[in-house]
Amino acid sequence: MDKPEALERVSEALEQAVRVLLEETTDPTPKPSQAVVVVGDLEIDAPAWSVKRRGREVSLSPTHFRLLLCLSEHVDQVVMYDDIARLLWQDKALLYSREAITNLVGKLRRRLGDGAITPRYIVAVPGVGYRLQSVAGRGARVRPRRGM
Q: Which secondary structure element, helix H or strand E, spans residue 20, and what is its range?
């Protein structure tokens, strides 16, 4: 095999590997849902842009809501820092640091009455990202929206 042919084969193999990786990459953008995600005493209603804790409305900024929605689409799974940044800031994601995401999560935790030391909802996975944890391993419930 001559050098040009070998380079062409390597190039084709690399292109195939990139295609496979792109297909395996999950999109962190929350999917539209006609349901309410219930995690413990937290209810996240995506279509209504509403969050309730213990039946009471929790006021969130659009950015905090999108972050919580993203985490609720992946209950008990880690959402990586890079995925959170792409979701929240799209093409400007590279301008934001992990520290910015950590600060945002801290503010969201405070709005939810959660804490970093003994988190009830949002758990940090050091060096990786965050996950919305189900309560006592019971998982999340998805129920139809009322009035639909």
A: helix 3-24
